[in-house]
User: What shape does this take?
Amino acid sequence: MTLQANVNRLWLLLCHFRRAYELDEDLFDANLEEETLAHYDRNKFLPLKIGQVLVRRYKILGKLGYGSQGTIWLCFDKKTKTYLVLKVIVALPWNLNGWSYELTSREVVADARCRNAASYHADSRGIEHIRLVEMSFLIDSRLSPGLSHLCIFHRPALIDVSTLQRRMKDKRFDAKALRMILKSVLMALDFLHRKAKIVHCDVKADNILCNALNDTIYGAIAEKLRKQHVVTKIDRKDQRRIYKSTTFEDFLHEVSFDNVLLGDFGEAEMGVGVGDQKGWTSMCNDQYRPPEIHLEMTWGSSLDIWAVGVLTWRLSQNQLLFGGSDDRRSLTTEDFLSRMHTILGPPPLNFLERSPNARRFWNEKAEWIGKTWDPPLTWSWDDRESSFDGQEKRAFIRFLKAMLRWRPEDRRTAEELLADPWLNASFECHTEKACYVGRRLSDALPSA
Assistant: This one.
């Protein structure tokens, strides 16, 4: 065999090993992660590489997730020697109504309002449960001239509550964990509503984050990312790398409920405080949308309180109270209103008079005339609630009903809910369900 033939064989062998290390061959022609999005535009996503250093300071360690708005990465701040989460927004116009996109990003504006409110008010309790922006800047897009990528940095969080719930054995949180999560969320909302004048508009389990017991865990995570094989696809068109997101499954035993954070202000409305009203708009995740939005009425900060009520039922019962799915828009407005009517009872007439569409669903006596569930839905709070017993069950149902009321002004505020007897009571855990707060969370997780 000639020397050239040996060289060629060696080259092919090296290419094979390089390719096997960098990507799964069966994924080479298949769409991966953000490529699977319905409206994916490759020119709008900033191509990043693991090991790359942004602005000579932030080293990319691994990919944590993706979505229609961009990608999320774990990075290391070489200046402060700390770990941060980077959210890279898809390329957007540098100027929007005369302002840079950074100044019109709700995430950044909400952060500024929170910080200003904290400096203005002597009592800023609640801001510690809000996921603030640590740093943000713009990077010009090379693939979309005239557009820029907004880069937003946050302190890292180990897992969101929605993902954590799916990992748990019985898919529900025990009473102690539930109280700790809800107290953190309500403290955050109390600060947002009364001090910062912000309505979050997207309170759901996916946007509630749990930290680790100790921040040093992120060093261990970074070391794991450095050693593990990362599934990678190389785009044929421009050789960009598309990485499969990593998870923190091996570190879930380090989850803490001591400082739960409310994050993602991408849907937030500014300048709306307790008692303020805004004109109707279509907002909120379908499953958490209150009746005033379904019926095209004005709305206010109690929109978030309704969402906490729906969230409470989901975390404690592993059910969406008004039906549907977290993942798809499967129900109509009529479907949701029909279920609300059955669960909450008929709405007050003076509430229906506020809506231009109420007569489609109710008559002049507030009797339901829309379509009904097949088979018909029957409801009893006592029968449906399955996590608590006796006095605690009754207190828990009263807590829920204080948030899930037809008229927004009848719902208790976040400040009032923080004083609720159930939220502050100390009941004994069920004997058949271990309370894992104060012990290892692994007690509530499936065995490996």
In short: The chain has two domains: 18-158+213-268, 274-431.
